[in-house]
Write a structure and sequence with these properties.
By secondary structure, this protein is of the alpha/beta class. Helix content is 40%, strand content 16%. Among the domains are: 1-43, no CATH class; 112-252, Nucleotidyltransferase, domain 5. It has helices at residues 2-5, 56-68, 75-82, 86-104, 162-172, 206-212, 214-229, 240-252, 259-271, 278-290, and strands at residues 21-24, 29-32, 40-41, 112-120, 136-145, 148-157, 178-181, 196-199. α4 packs across α8. The protein is globular.
Length: 291
């Protein structure tokens, strides 16, 4: 962890940026000699592991398990494997998923990119077209790699308005790229924002959509199968953004042959991701689903 966070060694205090730092071998901590209330610090400080009562042995085991599980791992499996409560395991996994997000969105998609939305959740009576009722609306962007799929981006959006769709496209896709979408009016105006738009007109039959926008529909199918298989569909809408981050992290690294390298990459992201409390994570995601 020290190597992942401080490749050149600990030369500054993460709290006050002072260079007056020394290592206390017996305590396995560092001490800052500047004047502030908490002069000692560990490698956990300023990371997703900060203020956790669990030791790094369990945290590193959790990161290893989630990095090596091809189809993901549920909080109940972490609960049994690490002998922690299910609530603790759930919180650990969500912190790790927060770290997954940091690396996933570092580089925007480019080239030819398919974009479309899908609903996550059961069928709702009275909901038509792009009305979502109580379902979660997820937008998916899939980069073309020949006939296959390159990297992807996903996000949960409040509605299919132009404001929501354009915000996602601008955050996820590099200007100058070709955006391939259906004829929904919410995508209109992307041309004025630096994108080349290609419209695929989809009829009323489901098979037409899967043929004209095959990549995003393939991703949507895999996502729903993963949520039902690994997590038995027990994902509340306010929790969904964390699971989308995990799915995206896994899919974009699906061709990685080295589990050790994948583990180290996730550790690099974990030690560079600021800490988050349980209450803040719950509050932020619930607020996002109600706006």
């Amino acid at each position: 962890m020290v190597k992942a966070r401080w490749p050149d060694g600990v030369v500054r205090c993460p709290r006050c940026d002072s260079e007056r730092v020394t290592y206390l071998a017996r305590q396995r901590r560092w001490k800052c000699y500047s004047k502030h209330p908490r002069p000692q610090f560990s490698v956990k400080i300023g990371t997703i592991f900060e203020d956790s009562p669990l030791g790094l042995d369990r945290w590193l085991s959790a990161v290893w398990l989630i990095a090596n599980a091809k189809n993901g791992i549920s909080s109940y499996e972490i609960h049994r494997a690490l002998d922690v409560t299910q609530k603790t395991a759930w919180f650990m996994l969500h912190r790790i998923r927060l770290a997954m997000q940091r690396g996933t969105f570092a580089k925007p998609l480019a080239g030819e990119v398919e974009v479309d939305e899908t609903f996550i959740g059961g069928l709702q009576e009275g909901a038509k077209g792009r009305q979502k009722a109580n379902k979660a609306l997820v937008i998916i962007a899939a980069q073309a790699a020949g006939p296959g799929i390159g990297r992807i981006r996903m996000g949960m959006i409040p509605d299919a308005s132009a404001e929501s769709l354009h915000t996602f496209v601008l955050e996820s896709i590099e200007p100058g790229s070709t955006v391939r979408s259906d004829g929904w009016q919410g995508y209109s105006g992307l041309e004025q924002k630096g994108f080349e738009r290609h419209i695929s007109v989809i009829g009323g039959r489901g098979e037409d959509a899967s043929k004209l926008l095959p990549r995003v529909h393939r991703i949507a199918s895999l996502l729903k199968r993963w949520l039902l298989g690994t997590h038995q569909g027990a994902v509340a809408p306010w929790q969904l953004p964390y699971y989308l981050d995990e799915f995206t992290f896994r899919f974009n690294r699906r061709k990685s042959k080295s589990r050790g390298k994948l583990f180290f990459r996730l550790m690099q992201q974990a030690v560079s991701t600021p800490p988050a409390t349980y209450d803040s994570m719950v509050a932020s995601t619930k607020a996002a689903t109600t706006t």
